[in-house]
Amino acid sequence: MMLSRVTTRLASRNFLRLSSTAIPKTQKGVIFYEHGGKLEYKDLEVPKPKPNEILINVKYSGVCHTDLHAWKGDWPLDSKLPLVGGHEGAGVVVAKGANVNNFEIGDLAGIKWLNGSCMACEYCEQGNESNCAEADLSGYTRDGSFQQYATADAIQAAQIPKGTDLAEIAPILCAGVTVYKALKESNVKPGQWVAISGAAGGLGSLAVQYAKAMGMRVLGIDGGAEKKKLFDSIGGNHFIDFLETKDLVSAIQEATNGGPHGVINVSVSEKAIGQSVEYVRPCGTVVLVGLPAGAVVKSSVFNHVLKSINIRGSYVGNRHDTREAIEFFTRGKVKSPIKVVGLSQLPEVYKLMEENKIVGRYVVDTSK
Asked: How much is the pTM?
């Protein structure tokens, strides 16, 4: 009986390992209680990590177009309510569960879209954890990083090197990993052309840089002088303004001498996706990344077969993709063009996204 009580006390002590800095009971965060409802900046309880989780003091969080879909509830994928959004959180580990061995208190860690999976099904075994039927999604099926403290599965949490600028790396945790994986899926080789549809947005601006770092030639498609300026500043080779170009398909094929070898569709325009199937080079690959609600991609069977093109969907990257994407960042090969605002200003950022006025990536500072 005495041994049992001692064992129980020891288990209780080891269940949660805490930072020497006191963790508050409440925190600031942005939450909504119904889809499309008010985004409330308010006091929330600080969550407690499970045995396999870490608690991260989130310093910065990128704002992704997926967060807008989660708020609107316009995807055919159930989300939790009420919900704290966000899945590009970068911060410091302040507590960890008893089963966590890959993080220590004080380490830097990142919260990704994929927050956990079963790790036992065929998809997880093959490194396709995002396709797991039990995938747990930050800011969608569980509360995410638009709060000062958030939990993350220790296996899926991103390892961030000490000394890293947490504001700068935040967008890499989703946008960066996602476009890096998509570029790998495109099978475009160094020296070949890749077209980025939506090249000056949060995803596109990173896709341009990853593509250049991988040795590709990059054609960017977007609208407006400000977006062309950004594209040119990050090393893009040729920009096409869809607002000013009458025959987009012909213009892209002429600029790339027959069409790009691959296309990364990060825009949320159904029309743009449909055009990419037309202008891609024979034997090329169209990669679908952006998720406009209710959209479909159409491809003429005759054209599809005659040109022998491939159309592929690319979801978020796995742990290996994440490690590689972060390494590109730490080596200075990619840098997200960010604008930092306070977490309390998140509703204003959502409004800009709805109006398609985002250039680069917004990052929220959770302390404001």
From this structure: 0.88
